[in-house]
Amino acid sequence: MIKKxxxxxxxxxxxxxxVGYFRYNPTVVVNKVIPNTAEAVVRVNxxxxxxxxxxxxxxxxxxxxxxxKSTSSSSTKVRKIALLDQVEIPTDLFFYTNYQNLKGVWxxxxxxxxEKKTLIEFFEQEGFKEKTGQNFRYYExxxxxxxxxxxxxxxxxxxxxxxxIEIKLAAVLNVKxxxxxEDLIIQKIRESKGLLTLxxxxxxxxxxxxNKQVLNLTGVIGEVNNIFLPHQTxxxxxxxxxxxxxxxxxxxxxxIEKSNKESFKxxxxxxxxxxxxxxxxxxxxxxxxxxxxxxxxxTYEYDDDFNKVxxxxxxxxxxxxxxxxxxxxxAFYKYLTSKKAVKTIGSKKVxxxxxxxxxxxxxxxxxxxxxxxxxxxxxxxxANDKFTLFFNVEEYNKVNRGIYNISNKYFRLIExxxxxxxxxxxxxxxxxxxxxxxxxxxxxxx
Length: 446
Known about the structure:
This protein is of the alpha+beta class. The protein folds into 2 domains: 157 residues, no CATH class; 210 residues, no CATH class. It is built from 11 helices and 23 strands. The strands form 3 sheets. The protein has a 19-stranded antiparallel beta sheet that branches. A two-stranded antiparallel ribbon has the order 12-20. Helix 8 packs antiparallel against helix 9. About 3% of the residues have low confidence.
């Protein structure tokens, strides 16, 4: 009897392992999925996401039970149509774009529709406007366009305002040639085990994985769109936050819209183009914490006899203990002084463009230092990666930050954020959560 039970358990275990293996290690199908004009492709590994959730449910089953009781009777609730109920969930969902006829738009691979009539009712329910094209219908909102062709659905995500969306749709629906397994961009996304993967024809590659309470992004930046340069650090890292690197200033300046440059000039009287030619791109930002400052405000009033009476009031406020070091060319500090951004008050020089708190400014042979309290401690200059970031979010959330308060329900979950770009252009970003008993995905989705 015991042998029979043991054999039964063994057989059931083998079946579950076999089914699980084939379910969570499926073949990545890319045949006639992504047009050969695609220059960037994103793969959303839905099966890997499912596996991540399932394993966490098994590990922490009680975390997924909601103990809160509904405040209204289920019979009185109006049942809303859900999009995911009207389509077949694929193993993988792909998005692609290019920088010519699809600039600013990402297009999904085809998704099989279960019930077209109910899907159309969903669009009506969500307020999408129905429009028609040649042999297809599409439903448009501000940032999303759903294209319904036969029994397939495509999703277009607009990253900015797009004029003449019909031209984009024509490019999407009239595809003749596709990328194949021999294309390098396809090989990269097929081999990835990440939940989400991005690959481009400019040799950029990134993938996102979740390891318990940590989200990891790893990858490589191609030289074509690389905005970072080798850099050397000069100061000790701030306790709360530290960001250092060197940027290709001219490259970034060319990416900024002309209207944004004009707005910056109206606000500061300084030209971004002039700043970009005088600053060499190196910077170090350090946040030590927040400090309380007391200001004495003097006002004057007149009494009944029209005598001038001085009144003093005390104002307490919290300001960041922060410093910013900018590597410069010889023209950088001269440009700041020519725009009256530097003013001498007593023995100190003050940067006048910051109206939120007093910012002192010093110049040396290598750069310009702006700081709010004490000058940061220098260390021996040493070779560093192209970009480094550390942010102790837990410590930041603990202290009184005054008006400099950045917080929401997701931000409060985070312990720290780390990012790094090496001299070989390898990229790592790590987001760690405070709660070590629940999976990263569950904490962000609950």
